[in-house]
Write a structure and sequence with these properties.
This protein has 135 residues and is α/β, with parallel strands linked by helices. The protein has 3 helices and 6 strands; from the N terminus they run βββαβαβαβ.
């Protein structure tokens, strides 16, 4: 996918208050899911954003679509800011010619999660799909 090797993946296992994060550049897939209300969002997400920024700075756009899947059950306000930073990072890649598809996956009955997805969809200029699923 770029000059990075396939062994360079970002994998963070979930905890009760932090989400699962899996980014596999070789597969073209970024996933974040679960709950996100870490005690210190900067401490948790800082290294994630740094890793992604380092990857993005080396990445040469390809014709393969990079899929970003977000399937959070709950997130706090400090996570909301981080998500916007994350989406803006992917937006910068998109503006450089990298095809990107963001999929905001939420439980169909969860109107708060749906509304959050609508807000993010309006905030970034990247193909952004709202995906309601049954529980």
């Amino acid at each position: 996918m770029s000059d990075l090797t396939t062994s360079e993946r970002l994998i963070i296992e979930p905890t009760f208050t932090t989400p699962e994060i899996r980014f596999d550049p070789a597969a073209g897939r970024f996933f974040i899911g679960g709950n996100s209300y870490p005690e210190n969002s900067l401490k948790f997400y800082g290294p994630v954003l740094q890793w992604l920024q380092a990857w993005a700075s080396k990445h040469t756009p390809t014709s393969e679509t990079l899929t970003v899947e977000v399937r959070l059950e709950y997130f706090n306000t400090s996570t909301a800011k981080v998500l916007l930073d994350l989406f803006r990072l992917f937006e910068s890649l998109y503006e450089r010619g990298q095809p990107i598809q963001i999929r905001w996956i939420y439980v169909a009955e969860d109107t708060e999660m749906e509304d959050a997805g609508i807000d993010y969809q309006a905030a970034v200029k990247v193909p952004f799909e709202l995906v309601p699923v049954d529980e």
